[in-house]
Every structure is written in structure tokens, then in C-alpha cells.
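We emphasize that the prediction below concerns an isolated chain of 303 residues; any contacts that depend on oligomerization or on bound cofactors are therefore not represented. The input was used exactly as deposited, without trimming of termini.
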Amino acid sequence: MPSRLAGISEKILTSYEAVGGLNHTDRHNLPSKRAVDSLCEQLLQVLFPGFHDEHPIHKNELAETTRIRLEALAERLGAQIARSIRLNDPKATDENAAEVLLRFLDQIPAIRELLRTDIQAAFEGDPAATSDEEIILSYPCLEAIAVQRSAHLLYKEGIKLLPRMMTEWAHSRTGIDIHPGAKIGPYFFIDHGTGVVIGETCVIGSHVKLYHGVTLGARSFAKDDRGQIVKGGQRHPAVGDFVTIYPNSTILGGETLIGNGSTIGANVFLMHSVPVGSLVVYEEKQLRILEKSKPATELEWSI
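Result of the prediction step, given as a C-alpha cell string:
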């Protein structure tokens, strides 16, 4: 067995040399996926104390618990920020990473204020919601939004890889894929949530409600003279205030604007702007409902 394992090891090492792009061993350490998993959990504990814990937190313990948790989060997050910064700037120092870290941590109260509006939007937008506690503990949209709002702050600092890893962590848990670059206003609610995709350059106003399966995506990708996709640019739609988008609708394009107060019906495919106060739906097609007691050949559906 040892000799065969040694031979296999040699083959794997040969593969490391022959197949590039799958190993990262000679440059700065990359952000750690395991560390990102843990720091997202730690972040949620700081954002929602008492909701992501096995044991209850007494109010008298909150100050000390917060101090300990903030120190632990700062240590783990600071290391991952430093690794991300050095990917783009190998000369970046730990002081550069510490400044970014402190600016991020200082904005946690502001993130919580936004999340307070999201909880209110969920409570008012879903008749099945019975309490704030239910929303925080069981609504996947709130977890996805909390991580995205946090990751967006790091994205604005010019750190690209770490925030993307954070939102993909939330994506894997919730089925909701929100790029950290998306700009999202207050009172944001995603009902059910599964299959929602929100692209990097989306701009979403306040009091917006999405249902499951909604895609806010890119219409096409510009290419350079070599046929390579041109990165950057406004590729995704903008959604105004007080907009509702029903299940499985797809809205594409960087020039597409959904006007304030509009409603987009289910299963709509849209690649152009709509004015303020629009109702966008497909005209209902003919539907026949026959008695089940009739022979199967007569059970016709026309859609």
C-alpha cells in the first residue's frame, strides 16, 4: 500500500505542474472558505444577538458577550480582508487591512438599522408572518440580505473576492443569489426566495418585494477585439421604489428601468423599461377544465 500511494502521489504532483489554474501554492494565501463560513456565522451572531445561539443571552451578559464576539470576528475577518487585499496589491500592509476592518465594523449599527426595515417589510408583506422572531429565525431572505448588506460594504472598499465568497455562502444556505455589488435600498423583502438571482450592477430602490424565481440579470455581454467579454459597466436592471415582481419573472439589461410603483406579473420576460405605475402581465390564454370522470382522451388542456 505505501509504495502504491507514493506512486499516486507522484502522479498528483505531476498533475499540479501540468494542469494549471487548479492549484494556488506560489502566491499569497487566498481567503479561506472555511474561515469565511465561520466569520459569516459570527457576523450573524453580532447582527442578531440571541437568535444564532444555542443558549440564551441574558441582558446583563450582552456587553461582555458583544465584546468577546466582536474581538473574535475582528481577528478572523481581518485576516481574510488582508488576504483579499494582497491579491490585488501584494505590497499592501496589515495596517491597510486594519483600516478597512475598522471601517466595516463601525458600520454594523447602520447595517442593523437597514435590517430592521427589512424585517418590517417581511412582516407587512407576508400575511403568514406572525412575529419578528419568526422572520429572523426562519425566513431565508433575511439571512441572505444580512450577509449581502455586510458584503456590500467590503465590496465598496474595492475588495472583490471575500464579499463574493460571503454571498455565495448565503446562496448555498438559502437558494438566494445576490451579488455583493448590488445596491439595495431599505424595506427589501424576498418572499420564499428560492431561485432569486440579483446581478452585480443592479440598483434596487426602497420598499421592493420580490418573489421566488425572479432574475434581475444581464441582457448581453460586450466583447473586445479578441472576442473576450468586457468586464464592468452597467449590465443589470434598476428597480424603482415600491415595486413588486411576482414569481419566475426575468428582467434583463443595464438600460432597463422599472418605474416606481410598478407591478411585474408572474412569468414575465422583460428587456426594456416600463414607466412609473405600470402593470406588466401576459394576457390570459384560454384554459379548459373538464370533468375527471370523462375518458382521458377528452381531458384536453389548451394554454
